[in-house]
What we know:
Protein name: 10641_t:CDS:1
Structural class: mainly alpha
Organism: Cetraspora pellucida
Amino acid sequence: DVPRRVPVLATPPLPAFEGRLFPSASLGLPYSVREPSTSELTRESNRKLIYYLCLLIEKNYGINENRI
């Protein structure tokens, strides 16, 4: 069984993460409601990393939703 390749659609990073507000430079928030745990920070940064990676790929290869 060969796993089917599923196209990844880039979604912009969300300001709210699992119902809790995190500090965001783009929103200009100086604080968070609660200090995020390390695993939450890692997940958040991983998600942003994947998002910007997708942007980079789209920029380099000219892939966008209209041409799929």
